[in-house]
Amino acid sequence: MKTALFIGRFQPFHKGHLYAITEILEEVDEIIIGIGSAQHSHTLNNPFNAGERIRMIRESLKEHGIDPSRYFLIPINDINDNRLWVSHVITLSPPFQLVYTNDPLTTQLFNEAQFKVVSLKMHQRELYCATEIRTRMLEGESWEDLVPKKVIEIVREIGGLKRIRNIGTTKLKI
To answer: Which CB contacts under 8 angstroms, 24+ apart, belong to 165-169?
Structure first.
């Protein structure tokens, strides 16, 4: 059985992430989706907590008919020590053989640990970008067409727009 690791912050989970996961699942049997920076929330860069992000991903994958037996959702806290980070990820995850990423540091660290690293095909990266989505949320612009329907529902349910705008207002005053 071939298992791959895909790590992201998913702040929020968007259609580009969904595209990447479906592409990866065409090549492997299972995917471990690592929720990076799991300890962070309630900031402009990381407005959603790990549980909210897990719900966004799980509900979006369910909505798109992806069999839950084909993926694991694993929160991964930052440890701020690159020498130990790969070992940290390994201790939190089921075994995997491949790592899918476009992040240069993640690529370097997993290559040094003798993992095969595969570059992701970015799907309309200029459009499907979590930073762009958060900016649109903060500025009251349209963002809903960039994320799966379940993400819209969860953001509304948890008061995510109000949270982002409150955080943004606080940051602007400082």
So the answer is: 165/137, 165/138, 165/140, 167/42, 167/43, 167/44, 167/47, 168/44, 168/138
Q: Closest Cα to residue 140, out of 171, 156, 174, 164? A: 164
Q: Which two tokens stand for residue 133?
A: 């989505």
Sole residue written with tokens 């798109």: 64
Do 109 and 82 meet the contact criterion of CB atoms below 8 Å apart?
yes
29-72: pLDDT as tens digits: 999 999 999 999 999 999 999 999 999 999 999 999 999 999 99
Give pLDDT < 70 ranges for the chain: 122-123, 125-126, 170-174
Q: Which of 151, 164, 166 is nearest to 53 (CA)?
A: 151
Per DSSP, the three-state class of 158 is coil
3-173: CATH, from 3.40.50.620, 2.40.110.10, 3.40.190.10, 3.40.50.1360: 3.40.50.620
Kind of pairing, strands 3-8 and 30-36? parallel
Q: What is the largest CA-CA distance in the chain?
A: 53
Q: What's the sign of the alpha-carbon dihedral 156, 133, 93, 22?
A: positive
Which tokens go with 1?
């059985």
